[in-house]
Amino acid sequence: MKNKQLFGTDGVRGIANIYPLTIDFCTRLAATLSTQICTKQRRVAIARDTRISGPMLFSALCAGFTAHGIDVLDLGVIPTPLCTTLTPQLNVDMSIMITASHNPYQDNGLKLIAADGNKFSDAQTAALEEALAADFAPAYDSAKIGTITQHETGLANYRTTIAKIAPQNALHSMKIALDSANGAFSGILPQIFAALGAEIISLADSPNGSNINQDCGSQHTENLSRVVAENGYDLGIAVDGDGDRIIICDENGKRLDGDQIIAFLATYLHKHGLLKNKAVVATIYSNLGLGKYIRSLGLDFYATAVGERYVIEKMHEIGANLGGEESGHMVLSDYALTGDALIAAVMVCLGVKELAQPVSRIFPVFQPFPAKAYNLRFENKEIISALLAKPEVERCIEQIKTDLEGHGTILVRKSGTEPVIRLKIEDENEAIAEAAAQKILPLLKE
């Protein structure tokens, strides 16, 4: 077993068939989970998105679990938010979602979900790291072999949930373009919106194992924007491969980021008396203008560390039912346990129809602070760790924090899923933000 950190902010990520996303590792992980986690119900549920490597990794996990007497529920191809929401209802010790979210098809990952539907905590993943690093000989018992059972779910579950949010034909007369990213929502998103009475055009809804997120979905909205603008649609909605993030474009094809969607949902829920504890949760990566806007509504605003898991933890702590990330994760906890693109999309459309205005007049909901954002890609994560530990880099970051204090901010962080440094600098004065960026960029690019 290689001595390296396996679990990032969203489970294990990598390239399929390269460590740690290998058959051997998946089998060993399942064996470890069998003895560490699956000790009560002795059942686990496994779901996946549409990547070609999904069935391979699923089979390896099943081998590891069943060889240790753990029964497996095969949830098939479903979105991550449905997997998390179903988990507490399945009488299982945990679930695993096989996905690399918005990444290309060559990548894959393992999201570990606790019995209550929440992601594994830092303490749980640390314990797993330790157990996986230890040498142990798996104990097999020929009298204790688990079973694999298919569990049919998907569209019916969403129909039940959406019925609690929107009545039949609630979106009648709306023209909506949908981009399913050739992912887990391909067979669900178009049917739900059609059932709500919307006139739709469905894009990227034919997954073949290798086209998930390819020039489509929340990360690549160029085609969606073009289709909306050229064909007179009211708006466009894009999700990512596993369905936990959403991006919207207006009738002109202009892309609206996650912070604007959070602001819109907060306004809509607050207006209808549905926002619990008058609180909204986002992350430190959200634009400073979002917090200023939320507070202007008389609401409390909380910013957590980057990662949907930390947003959800804060929501639980303060009793909030709305949280999200600039990247497009929208958590509406009255209806789902994690970010759910479909639920957020339906609620946004309800709000847009209620206002009876073009989306371009509704958005932007707030005026963002000027920001400079950069994604700096490196060969591997080890290079990033060494770079950020350099004294001259640390000194520069601390000096910029001091310079911006009270009117701006700097965020330098390692991506939890890719060998990328994310740099973001904001200030009420764009020139100050630009000057700060030019101080730190040469050190990072070096």
The helix-and-strand class reads alpha/beta
Return the CATH topology of the largest domain.
Alpha-D-Glucose-1,6-Bisphosphate, Chain A, domain 3
- CATH superfamily name of the largest domain? Alpha-D-Glucose-1,6-Bisphosphate, subunit A, domain 3
Let me know the largest β-sheet.
6 strands, mixed
What percentage of amino acids are in beta strands?
15-25%
Cα radius of gyration in angstroms: 22 Å
Q: So what's the overall shape?
A: globular
Under the CATH scheme, the architecture of the largest domain is 3-Layer(aba) Sandwich
The domain tally reads: 3
Helical run tally: 15
Strand order of the largest sheet: 1-5-4-2-3-6
Distance between the termini: 32 Å
How many individual β-strands?
A: 18
Mean pLDDT comes to 93
Helix content: 25-40%
List low-confidence stretches. none
What's the CATH first level of the largest domain? Alpha Beta
Q: Explain this structure to me?
A:
The chain has 446 residues and is an alpha/beta fold. The protein folds into 3 domains: 12-153, Alpha-D-Glucose-1,6-Bisphosphate, Chain A, domain 3 (3-Layer(aba) Sandwich); 156-362, Alpha-D-Glucose-1,6-Bisphosphate, Chain A, domain 3; 371-445, TATA-Binding Protein (2-Layer Sandwich). Helix content is 37%, strand content 21%. It has 15 helices and 18 strands. Helix 8 crosses helix 11 (341-355). It is globular. The chain starts with 11 loop residues before the first strand and ends with a helix. The model has no long low-confidence stretch (mean pLDDT 93).
